[in-house]
Amino acid sequence: MASHSTADSTEQPFFQDEPAGPIRRTEIPGPQSKKAIAHLDKVFETRSLNMMANYQNSFGNYIADLDGNVLLDVYAQIASIPVGYSNPNLLLAATSPEMASALINRPALGNFPQHDWAEILETGILRVAPKGLNQVFTAQAGSDANELAYKAAFMWKRGQERGGPNVDFTQEEISSAMNNQSPGAPNMSILSFRSGFHGRLFASLSTTRSKPIHKLDIPAFDWPQASFPMLKYPLDQHVEENAREEQRCLDETEKLLTTFHSPPAAIIVEPIQSEGGDNHATPAFFKGLRALTRKHNVLMIVDEVQTGVGATGKFWAHEHWNMEDPPDMVTFSKKAQTAGYYFGNPELRPNKPYRQFNTWMGDPARAILFRAIINEIERLNLVQSTAETGDYLYKRLEKLGEKYPGEIQNLRGKGQGTFIAWDSPRRDEVLKKAKGEGINVGGSGERAVRLRPMLIFQKKHADIFVDAMEKVFKT
């Protein structure tokens, strides 16, 4: 499907093997995909299936199915593919002897770390550590990373209450912990924000507030939630009103920090609430949160599972806030292809072994892959490219929104790389029709169309996307 391009014709492609544009041969799903879905449904849950993909035929920004359809993918496995499908440099890393050893001899890192684990971390995960955070605890997935950060916060807080990290446990604490009773199992909480999403495990689910379907029938901790600012757009036309809204949310947060019946040990916040509808706040709000955590001696955890690794035009989205005082912990996963949390304060290490522990404690194979991803990001200057492409894409969407104001409402993400979204009164219909125009795009919240393209997404891809969306809006 050809598309008129207004991008700079001298733009050099990052991915030589990808198609020139989308290819549509059948409806989606087509006959071969329907057969494969029916087969899979006998042994695996398929009710959330978006499309049946053929990854061996997927390249760069394009995802293929079993029927010869090839779609421009601006959803990228829910923001999890950083440098393109079938990236040749990632393939080299994946087929290296170092990777093979990590895969077939997978170490239990807490007990039997491999001899070069420190080097793998220092040349990869820690090479891109957020400012002020020079240590990492690796994990399996984003939910896992957040839960481990919560545990670190609770242990830190109780250490402070006990008189310091080196003060030993009392016999009462030891015995009561085995019965899930205080003081060994203390009455504490993690404060999160309305519409936030932090995972689907038990503690992370207790801080997830995006959709009821995530939480129904699952027992949850009675933990506090504060309002997250609901800003009005365009931002430059509602400055004073938005500032009042952010202050209202900060006041509510402080009240919960000081009065909630289960005192918070930490707050957790996303730089951009992703699953909850792509909700933004200004740097002033996040700086205000940091000031509150310092004032009331609780930790600040920034959940960068979806926003991290370049998508917002900074390697970490919280860099946009220009904070002198960094967060206490930053969790990551998705585009990193591994997971964990960064921290700097040595007191966030437990006072005894086996307290922050599991069999794997991460995965060297995935850490090696993240290192290859970092190399590719740096080689191609993809963070800067994403910032520039995002500015170009935002301007094109602004113009499209002027032409179709009923279709693009509350356009947001200006200056945030390609982390762009808008509200649509017929969102689900738009997502479905986009596939018919060769575009795989996702939603968030109840009404938002969210863009989560890869870091190799360029201006020519932005043109293809915008031209296709205009065809959707015409129907």
Helix content: 25-40%
CATH class of the largest domain: Alpha Beta
| Secondary-structure-derived class | alpha/beta
User: What count of domains describes the coordinates?
Assistant: 2
Using the alpha-carbon principal axes, give the shape: globular
Would you report the number of β strands? Answer: 14
Tell me the name of the CATH homologous superfamily of the largest domain.
Type I PLP-dependent aspartate aminotransferase-like (Major domain)
SSE series: HEEHHHHEHHEHEHEHEEEHHEEHEEEH
* The CATH topology of the largest domain: Aspartate Aminotransferase, domain 2
Q: Number of helix segments?
A: 14
> What does the largest sheet look like?
7 strands, mixed
Major beta sheet, strand line-up = 3-9-8-7-6-4-5
Radius of gyration: 23 Å
Q: How would you state the average pLDDT, rounded? A: 96
Terminal-residue CA separation: 17 Å
What is the CATH architecture assignment of the largest domain? 3-Layer(aba) Sandwich
Q: Strand portion, in percent?
A: 5-15%
Poorly predicted regions are: 1-5
Q: What are its keywords?
A:
475 residues, 11% strand, disordered N terminus, Aspartate Aminotransferase, domain 1, alpha/beta, globular, 2 domains
